[in-house]
Amino acid sequence: MRELVLSCPEAEAESLSDILLDIGVLAVSVEDADSDTHTETPLYGEPGLEPSVQAWRNNRVVALLPDGLDPAQVLEQMADLSGAPVAEGQWQVREVPDEDWVRLTQSQFGPIQVGARIWIIPSWHANDPEITANHASHSGAIRIELDPGLAFGTGSHPTTHLCLEWLADSLPSGATVLDYGCGSGILAIAASMLGAASVDAVDIDEQAVQSTRDNALNNQVSVNACLPDALGEGQFEVVVANILSNPLKVLAPMLANRVAPGGSLVLSGVLERQAEEVAAAYEPWLQMEVWRARDGWVCLHGRRPTV
Predict the structure, then answer these.
(1) Whole-angstrom Cα distance, residue 259 to residue 180?
(2) 264 φ, ψ to 5°?
(3) Among 171, 172, 183, 240, which is least packed, fewest CB within 10 Å?
(4) 41-78 pLDDT tens trace
(5) Confidence (pLDDT) at 150
(6) Bridge partners for 228 per DSSP
(7) Does residue 295 register a pLDDT over 90?
């Protein structure tokens, strides 16, 4: 398998990517050509939102070519579609062994320890003897084998860490739990392993629901994963939602009323500067306070009054 690597300025990166996809390449990525140099420029936006600028000052557009697609043909079609030929020196072709793509993807997700009790083990590290030894050395630790698939929730994000830590520290034994916005199912599975009596997991994405089901089965725990319309009536002793601040505010009436009297509501996906605004949205039902903060994010916790 081969990659076609093209150099281009910021203004051309997005249109060039679209043209390459129209031609029939398998995938396109845009990289900062000045990465690891003194002229490197950060590119980021608000969490959950796209940055206003979609490329760097100088870019490498990398197109993965299917077997049989001639790079010269791609360059010729690009010239026809863009109206300008690609100059010599602005492109190169490099060989990429097929197996390197799998290895590269998997290398991004290594085993993660969360607090003293929780280990998140990607499925491709499940039989790693060093990981097994480390896990066994911690009394009361739980091991979650996870295949992230296409769903959010590898265990690497600070908001996921915060929710996992709350569950490890504060989940009542035998509690009923609702994980709203379950993603890969990591929080629902952790709750079940940490002693919940029953766990429901909800997501608006069918792929996330299936990912949660698959990961729960692989970890030999019972989780009822479903789309929102399939969730039955009832309240829960613990409701956890790790999404973003705007959806959390919109969902405030529903999530708050899913918490049983005396039960806990745990929210994350909230920036520190958004904490007061999100807490205010829940004030008619329960008082939310910052339980813990990490890397600019917070976990909010509140207990619903018993009367």
Answers:
(1) 12
(2) -110, 145
(3) 172
(4) 655 444 444 555 556 778 889 998 887 788 888 898 88
(5) 46
(6) none
(7) no
The answer to whether the CB of 216 falls within 8 A of the CB of 192 is yes
Residue 215 and residue 186 in contact, taking contact as beta carbons nearer than 8 Å:
yes
Domains (range + CATH), the chain:
2-96 (3.30.70), 157-303 (3.40.50.150)
The answer to which of 136-145, 173-182, 212-221 has the lowest mean pLDDT is 136-145
Q: What is the token pair recorded at 134?
A: 């480390």
pLDDT tens-digit map of 236-288: 999 999 998 889 999 999 999 999 999 999 999 899 999 999 999 999 999 99
Contact predicate 61/13, CB 8 Å: yes
CB 274 within 8 A of CB 295: no
| Crossing angle for the helix pair 71-82 and 10-23, to the nearest 10 degrees | 120
Position 37 scores a pLDDT of 66
